[in-house]
Amino acid sequence: MRQILAGATAAKGMALGRARLVQPSRYLVDTRPLGEDEVESELARLHHALDTARQELRELRGRLHGALAREVNEFIDAHSLLLDDPELLRGLDDLVRIGHYRPGAALKKQRDRLAAVFEAMDDPYLRSRKEDVDQVIGRVISALQRQTSREERKLAARVGEILIADTIAPADMAHLAGAGLLGVVASSGSPYSHSAILARSLDLPMLVGVRDALSTIHDDDLILLDAERGEAVVHPTAQDLAHYRAWQREAAQEGRRLATLAHAPTRTKDGADIRLLANAEMPPDIAMARARGADGVGLYRTEFLFLRQKGLPTEDEQFNAYRDLVLGMGGLPVTIRTLDLGADKADAAGLVLRGEDNPALGVRGVRLSLRYPAVFTTQIRAILRAACYGPVRVLVPMVTQPDELIAVRTLFKLARQELKRENVDLPEKLSLGAMVEVPAAAINVRALLEHADFLAIGTNDLAQYVLAADRGNDALDNIYNPLQPALLRLLSYVIAEGRRAKKPVSLCGEIGGDVHFTALLLALGLNEFSMHPSQLLHVRDRLATLDRTVLRAHAPRLLRARTHEEAEALLAQIVG
Ligand code: PEP
Ligand code: MG
Q1: 121 is a domain residue
Q2: Residue of 464, 508, 510, 526 to test ligand 1 pocket, by largest number of atoms within 8 Å of CB
Q3: Is residue 327 part of a domain?
Q4: What is the signed CA dihedral for 359, 362, 364, 369, rounded to 10 degrees?
Q5: Which pLDDT band holds residue 25 (cuts at 50, 70, 90)?
Q6: Is 508 in the pocket of ligand 1 (CB under 6 A)?
Q7: Are residues 356 and 396 in the same domain?
Q8: What domain range is 341 assigned to?
């Protein structure tokens, strides 16, 4: 049966694939009692599902050969025996016929009963048989829940997988993308989470906040993930598939049109030049940034180097990555952000402090780096060495107060002296900038500007800290809104203060690459945007339609908005 599940788009695009549940909804069953007239048909459905499960096991056996087959066949035999166990089958029949259990509920009841029997056994081998029971009954429940037609199964076998999960960790997503994952449907999460950022970076369509995904979708269901409209279509119809093909054609056409903008200047309608920078994490981002005519890299997130492997990357490993970045940008400036581990970014390196009650308000970003000067110095040395290959700026995350910048500068100075003693080539003086993502840094930005050569506003975090709303929590959607007046006023203030101090200010949060906010940011005086490279041409295209002088004149009105709804309405009015 076709079903539409709505969610919020975290990464645009569409994909057609088979569902793969990370937490299968195997034991989410309907517990309402059966009506007398349903008993026979439901019994038939149950036996049909049992037959399907037996058939699957036979097919599985047929596909295995050699030593592996001998080992696995033992399990298949055990599972087949369980499926034919007279006691189990009689119990199921009785539960449906006499107890008026629905088949799924009857299976679950039998599973719980058998599991309890095995669990009570002393022999560890027999105790472990509980897993077999789980797997066998899970297989029957899957067969029961699967309503896929034969045609749909044939089609599904030819397409890849769409992950259905509650949430997904960035590291898992990177791994699965390499294994051919087509898209993600998450039942919670937010478009501003790091997983969402990564999905955009990997060009994987992703929906978040699809509430009933895990209880409605089953393994192997055919899914049309439509992250353009913000919905997942379960069991799509021929009409849905036609819509998908039309989208594919349009996307290819739009891609060709935008490609003509790749090396066009970035200019507003009234002729103001704007700098478009790229946010980068991985080598393909760098290639895309070049191909789409970025003016440089505005944010290189180095933590991805630390999350990819267990343990810390060595100085040489880091140097190689940074040098490749610098060389890859062919003489354009690159902004390397020092390590921003903590909070939602996993602790692969073993650095994140355990037991913090509020990790987002804890030792993360520069706070963490300054606690581990030896680890930080390794990164600083690698950056200094790479900076001999092209223009590099250094960006410090989670700055709260000037002394943190002063401490980072001192570490850079010491690392230079060390490298000099080792006769290593050194670059000219590097610019040192601060991320403005902590409210204190924004409010006290004048003091920060005395020590920073440039600023990069991180609206993903600034919004979460100004609004006291976790950027990954979809229950706070109505609060976590980039158009919140408090945030707009802070942005306007920081941009104006940067201009007053004659220091560059860029913005590298997700709104920088979202065309919905391009007019707003121009109105607030921003002239350096940093974004995921996939957005560069869209933003360049949008900027060419906007008149900066007119928008600037509207800024005072926008800044008087009292609610985000009011700001949204005003923006719509201004842009027309
Ligand atoms: C931000 O906070 O806006 C930002 C760009 O940094 P990250 O998303 O890596 O925290
Ligand atoms: Mg941040």
Answers
A1: yes
A2: 508
A3: yes
A4: -140
A5: very low
A6: yes
A7: yes
A8: 265-575
Q: What is the pLDDT of residue 338?
A: 97
- How far apart (Å, rounded) are the C-alpha atoms in residues 202 and 92? 47
**Whether residue 333 sits in one domain with residue 450:** yes
Domain C-terminal end among 112, 145, 178: 145
With residue 335 as reference, give the H or E element that holds it. strand 334-337
Interval 420-430: pLDDT, tens:
999 999 999 99
- pLDDT tens for 67-82 read 556 656 776 787 888 8
Beta bridge partners of 3: 234
Q: What percent of the chain has pLDDT over 70?
A: 89
Q: Residue 510 falls within a domain, yes or no?
A: yes
pLDDT of residue 157: 55
- pLDDT, position 141: 81
- Residues 169, 52 share a domain: no
Given 125, 145, 165, the domain boundary residue is 145
In a domain, 337, yes or no: yes
User: Residue 541 has what pLDDT?
Assistant: 96
pTM (2 d.p.): 0.72
342 CA to middle of ligand 1, Å?
Answer: 12
Q: In what order do the strands lie in the sheet with 8-11?
A: 3-6, 231-234, 222-226, 14-21, 161-165, 183-186, 206-208, 8-11
Half-sphere exposure of 375 (CA within 13 A, CB side): 21
Tell me if 461 CB under 6 Å of ligand 1: yes
Instruction: State how many domains the chain has.
Output: 3
Task: Please state the atom number of ligand 1 nearest to the C-alpha of residue 508.
Answer: 5
The DSSP H or E segment spanning 216 is helix 213-216
**Looking at ligand 1, which atom is closest to the CA of residue 397?**
6
> What is the residue-wise DSSP string for 493-560?
HHHHHHHHTT--EEE-SGGGG-GGGHHHHHHTT--EEEE-GGGHHHHHHHHTT--HHHHHHHHHHHHT
